[in-house]
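Protocol check, entry for the methods section draft. Step 1: assemble the input record (protein sequence plus ligand SMILES). Step 2: submit for complex structure prediction. Step 3: store the C-alpha cells unaltered in the notebook. Ligand used here: 2-acetamido-2-deoxy-beta-D-glucopyranose. Step 1 record:
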Amino acid sequence: MNIASSSLLVYSVTIVLFTLVYANQKLGAPNPQPQQICPEQNDIAPCICTVKKNGLDILCETTDLAHITKSMGTLKGQSPIIFYLKLRHNNLPKLQGFVFLALDIRHLTIHNSSLAAIEENALSSLGNGLTQLDVSQNQMKTVPSAALKHLFRLLILNLNHNKIGVIHNNAFEGLDTLEILTLYENKIVTIEPEAFRGVEKKLKRLNLGGNDLTVIPQKALSILDSLKKLEIQENKIGSIHEGDFAGMESLDSLILAHNMITSVPANVFSHLSILNSLELEGNKIEIIDKDGFKGLEENLQYLRLGDNNIQSIPSEALRPLHRLRHLDLRNNNISFIQEDAFTGYGDSLTFLNLQKNDIKFLPSMIFENLNSLETLNVQNNKLSHIPQDIMEPITDTLRIIDITDNPLICSCELTWFPRLLQDLKNRDDEMAQKNKPACLMPIENRQYYVQTMPLEKMNCGGKNASPSPIPQNLLRMNAFALSIFTVVSRF
Ligand SMILES: *[C@@H]1O[C@H](CO)[C@@H](O)[C@H](O)[C@H]1NC(C)=O
Ligand SMILES: *[C@@H]1O[C@H](CO)[C@@H](O)[C@H](O)[C@H]1NC(C)=O
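Step 3, stored output:
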C-alpha cells in the first residue's frame, strides 16, 4: 500500500468514526450514566439534596445521628451516586457501624460535628468509591485507623483541627492510594517511626503544621520517597540536624516556618537535591553554616529567611545556589552588607527582600551582578543615601522598588528615583505608584517627597521640576502612614 492510499484509508476511517460519534450523540450513547435524581425534599429533611454533574450533593447541617440515619435510609432505596455527602455542624459524637451501608459516596465530609469516634465498620462499605474523606474540626484524639483501613481508593484524608496527640505505627495502613494527608492543628507531640508505613508509595503532600513537635520525626518521614510537599510550620522545633530529611528525595517544597530553629547546620538539607522552595521564616535563626544549603544547588529557587535574627547576608552559604530567584531576608538584624554579598548567586535573583533591617549603607558595587532583579524592597532601614551608581546596574530590570521609611537625605544622587518611576510608568500603564518615600532637605530642615525634590535649589540640572514641599500638617498626619509598603506595585 502506498502513502496516498494509506492516508486515504486513515481519512475514511476518520469519517466513519466521526459519523458514529455524531450518530451516538444524536441517538443517545448506549448505556449513559443514568441521570441522578434527588429524593423528595420531605423524605430527606433536614438534609438538602442538589443534583451535580457527577452525582448528588447532600448537605446535612445542625442535626443529629438519628435524622442523618433516617435520611441515609431514604437514599439507600434509590442507590444513587452521592458525589458529595457533607455533614457539618452536627452533633455526631460517634459514627456508628454500617451507617453508610449500601451507599456509593465519593467525597465524605464530617466537619465540626463533635466527632470523637468512628466505629470500625462505619466506613468499611465505602472502600470502592470513596476518594476524599474530611473529618476536620472534631474531637478525635487518635487516628481512627481501624475505620480507615478499608478505604483503598482514598486520595485525600483531612484530619485537621482535631485533638490527635500521637500518630501510632501503621496508623494509615491500608490507604494504599493516599496522596494528600493533612493533620494541621492537632496536638501531635509524637510520631512513631512506622507511622506512615503503608502510604509511602503514593503520598505526595503531608501537612503536620500547627502541632507540638519538638523534633523532625525523621524515622517516620524517611520512608516517604514520593513526597513532594512537607509542611511542619508552627510547631516547636528547636533544632534541625544533618540526616533529618534523608529519604525524601522527591521533596519539592519544605515549610519549616514559625518554629524555634536557631541555626542551619552544615548539610542539613543535603538529601533534598530537587528542592525548589524552602521556607524558614519566623524562626530564631542566628547562625547559618557555610554548608547549610549544601545539596540544594541545582534546584532551589525560593528561600525565605525573614523574621529571624540573622546579622548579615549569609553569602557563603548562598553562593552555590545559582538558581535562586527569590531571597527573603526581611525583618532580621542585618546592619552591614559586604561588597560581595551577592557574588556567585545574584545573577538569577528576581526578588530581593531586605526591608525591616538595620542597613545604614549600601556598598557601591552591591547590585553589580543582579542582572535579573525585578523587585527590591529596602524600606524600613537606616539608609540616608542611595546613590545612582549603586542603582545603575538594576534600573533596566526593576519593576518594583520600595525605599520608603529610610532617613533619606534629599540630594542630586537620588534623582534616579523619580526618573525610574517615570520609566516604570512609561513601560507599563498599570504600574501605579502607591507610596512616596520622603527625604530631608538639610539646608531647610524640611521634608520633601523624593519624586518632587526642589531640584532647582539643588543644582542638579533638572530645570522643569517644580518644588513641592509637603505641607507640615500633612507630614505629621503621614508620619505613621509612612510605614508604607511598595512604592510601585503591579495590579
Ligand atoms: C460548629 O458547630 C456549632 C453547632 O454545632 C456552631 O454553633 C459553631 O458555630 C460551629 N463552629 C464553626 C467554627 O463553624
Ligand atoms: C542586632 O545586632 C546588633 C549588632 O549589630 C546587636 O548589638 C544587637 O544585640 C542585635 N539585636 C538582637 C535582637 O539580637
